[in-house]
Structures are given as C-alpha cells and as structure tokens.
Amino acid sequence: MTEEIRLKLQATGLTDAQIEEKVQAKVQELSGLISAEGALHIIANEVGVTASEPEKMTIKSIEAGAMDINFDAKVLDIYEKRTFKRKDGTGTVQTLFIGDTSGKIRFVCWDTATAMVSTVQVGDTIRVSGAYAKDGRGNVEVHCGARANIERNPEGVSIDIPVSVIERIDIKDAMPGDSKVEFLASIVQFYDTRFFDQCPECRKRVTDGNCEVHGTVEPAVSYVTNVVLDDGTGTMRAVFWKSQTNQLCGKSEEEMVSLREGSFEDVRLSLLGEQVVIVGVVKENSMFNRNELVVNRVQRAEPTTE
Ligand SMILES: [Zn+2]
C-alpha cells in the first residue's frame, strides 16, 4: 500500500526526493510520534491521494488456509465466551456466526480480538481485516488473532440478509440440516454423562496429555450427555456438550466434575419426565440411520399454572 501511495504521489508531479523531504518534515512536525509510513499517509491525504481499499472477499470465496483476509459481514449469532489455561497464561475465545449475501461462516475470535466483539450484537455489521481461515471440524472457519481488526457497524455498509428467527417445530418434522429450530419436549431417557480430556486450544481429544496439533497440553475436562426427547409426535436423541450439559443439569462445571467419579442417579431421576425447551441443529447420524439434535441451548419449560 505504501508503494501504491508513493506512485500516486509521483503522478501528481512530486519527485522521490520531494516526497522524502515532506515525509521527514511531517515526522518532525509531529515530534516523531508517527512512523514514516504514517507520515506518508497524512501527506497523501493532504494532497487528495487515497490508497485503494484492501480487496474484500465474500464469505463464500473464503477457503481454508487463506491469510490476511478482509470482508464485511452481518452478525447472526453470538455464542458463549470461554476462557482456558495456556502454558503462558489464560486464553479467551469467543465464537460468532456471521454471514453475507453469499454464505454463512463460523467466526472465531482469540484473546485481544474478543475485546473487539464484546459490544457486538446480533444484527450488527462488522468490517474484518487481517483474519485467516482454517478448517474446523470439516467446515471452513474464519479466525481472528492478534493481527486482526474488527470494526463494529462501519459507516455505509448494509448487508441485506435476515437474521434468522428460531422456529418451533415438531420432532416428526425435523430434517437433517435444520438449524435454529426449537422443540418443546420431555426427557424420556437420560444416559450417563461421558467425560473426556480435550485440548484447551483446539478442543480435540487429548490422549496421554498429547494433542495431535498442539503437542503436550494441560488437558481441559469436557463431557457429553445423551438423552432421548419425546414431544408426542416422535422421539429424537439429543446431544449435550459441556455447557449445554451444565444448563440441562443446572450445575456448574465444578459440580459436574465432582460427579465424575460419583453417581448421576439423582441428576438422572430429577430430569426424567422433565419438559424442556431446546434449541439446536438437526444432524443425520448415518451410522445409526437416525436424526440427532446437537443442542445449542436448553431451558426447563415454564410450569403451567393451569
Ligand atoms: Zn490442540
């Protein structure tokens, strides 16, 4: 970009030496508080020369492995912010779901980038620069690290896609691919919660303290719970990952971990027959040839006063 500005300044009739002189004067004028590159931008502004905007991608065109990508998007969903232990301290990660008119994608912010989305709300537009893309569980994801910048509601940007509304459906009508669907159903079976160790960074399973991507890590504990739901129109198995299990059982992570060696009998009995409102994504389990609900959030149904 710097080179582009130099060429454009030269096109206005300035020589290289004159540009350099102006840059030095500007740096001095501002008491050395800016870089030569910064000065160059100011001078360009003063004479009406602008650099072209960095090339913008559409969501659909983003491929795993792409670096330094720039795009605008609309925020469609915001998930829970997590903190985790790293060898050198604490990490933070915040995942959003975003889209434009070409497609939708998971948007993962790490550490300093999480602060840039702390005030972002569903329906906002964001302008992202310096992000990268990688494969995450079979789908392309956009990640924002220390080099990324995220601007909330930039001027003049509007992305005309609907923020999807959650729709309540019957279990008999559930189709693989349904996302943002809600069910009102009773828990008719509750299997044990299964615990396992996972990498705090990439959430892959850890064996003998080793992540296949991150090497030796201090594993974080995770768990998964399977239940069977029945809403009177049909039954469906539902999968609750860690935070959803906590929501379902009304327990903190510490309380869940303390039950790891103990018995879930009390929890199990308290949930059997319980009516819940549950939001998730319907997936096909081809091994068992059935639909499963991967739960995003769950709450106990309000008891009726009738
Ligand atoms: Zn890992």
Q: How would you describe this protein?
A:
The protein is an alpha+beta fold. The protein has three domains: 2-46, no CATH class; 59-152, Nucleic acid-binding proteins (OB fold (Dihydrolipoamide Acetyltransferase, E2P), Beta Barrel); 167-300, OB fold (Dihydrolipoamide Acetyltransferase, E2P). It has seven helices and 14 strands. It has helices at residues 2-11, 16-29, 36-46, 112-116, 242-249, 253-258, 265-271, and strands at residues 69-86, 89-100, 103-110, 125-136, 139-144, 149-152, 167-168, 181-198, 210-211, 215-216, 220-230, 235-240, 275-285, 290-300. The strands form three sheets. Strands 1-2-3-5-4 form a five-stranded mixed β-barrel. A five-stranded mixed beta barrel has the order 8-11-12-14-13. Strand 1 and strand 2 form a beta hairpin. Helix 1 packs parallel to helix 3 (36-46) and helix 2 crosses helix 3 (36-46). It is elongated, with a radius of gyration of 25 Å. The mean pLDDT is 88. Bound molecules: zinc ion (ZN). Zinc ion (ZN) binds at residues 199, 201-202, 204, 211, 213-214.
